[in-house]
Amino acid sequence: MSGSSGGTFSGLPSRETSCESLALETHLSSPREDVVDRIQVGDSLFLSVVAHGSVSTVQVYWNGELAGGIASPSVQQLQNCIGEGFNYIATVTAKNGGEVRIRITPTQN
């Protein structure tokens, strides 16, 4: 990636990872309280890229209900990979009140 400083964020290299091995540790942004209340550690969440005019976001769903979004420095790469046909799953790794930590990994097709 041109212009990369080679630094790290959360211990991860700043260079882009291939879509096949892209994995992210992050939290739900703008969590929906009514849905998050029912989410448990270990639950699997579905990811979808949703366009709002000229802006796209990655949204996270639990049992078909919008749970929140993804805020990560790697969200653009995640969006690109999903756009290229790669599928990812988010697994809930921790929950503290309304804060939900997730690990995003590619699904096995």
Keywords:
109 residues; mainly beta; Alpha-Beta Plaits; 2 helices; globular; disordered N terminus
The oligomerization state is: single chain
Give the N-terminus to C-terminus distance in angstroms.
28 Å
CATH class term: Alpha Beta
- Output the radius of gyration: 14 Å
Work out the strand percent. over 45%
CATH architecture classification name: 2-Layer Sandwich
Using the alpha-carbon principal axes, give the shape: globular
* Count of helical stretches: 2
Order of strands in the sheet with most strands: 3-6-5-4-7-8
Profile the largest sheet: 6 strands, antiparallel, barrel
Fill in the CATH topology.
Answer: Alpha-Beta Plaits
pLDDT averaged residue by residue:
85
E-strand count:
8
Number of domain units: 1
What is the helix fraction of residues, given as a range? 10-25%
Helix/strand class = mainly beta
- Along the chain, the helix and strand elements come as EEEHEEEHEE
Description:
The chain is mainly beta and 109 residues long. The chain is globular, with a radius of gyration of 14 Å. The protein has two helices and eight strands; from the N terminus they run βββαβββαββ. The chain has helices at 33-36, 75-83, and strands spanning 8-9, 12-13, 24-29, 44-52, 55-62, 65-70, 88-96, 99-106. The protein has a single domain, classed as Alpha-Beta Plaits (2-Layer Sandwich). A hairpin with a 2-residue loop joins strand 5 (55-62) and strand 6. The model is unreliable at 1-14 (pLDDT under 50). The strands form two sheets. The chain has a six-stranded antiparallel β-barrel. Strands 1-2 form a two-stranded antiparallel sheet. 12% of the residues lie in helices and 46% in strands.
